[in-house]
Amino acid sequence: MQPRWTVESESGCTVRFADGVSALDLNSGLWNVPLGYRNARVGEAVMAAMTVGSYGGVFRRSSVAAEEVAERLVHLWPRGTYGKVLFATSGSAANDAVIKLSRLHRRRLGRSDRPVVVSFEGSYHGQTLGAMGLSGEDLLQGEMLTAPHEFVKVPVDDSDRVRQILDSHGTRISAVFIEPLQGTGTRPMDDAVLQEIFEARRRHGFLVIADEVATGFGRTGVMFRSARWRESADLVVLSKALTNGTQAASAILVGSEVADVFAAQGAIFPHGETQAGSLWACAAMNAVLDEFEERFGMVTADAQLPETRSMEQFLDKVSAPSMGLQVRGEGMFYTITGTEDFDGLAVGERLRSAGLVVHAGLHSIQLAPPFVLSHQQWADAAETLKEELHRVCADG
Ligand SMILES: Cc1ncc(COP(=O)(O)O)c(C=O)c1O
Question: pLDDT at residue 1 above 80?
Answer without folding.
Answer: no
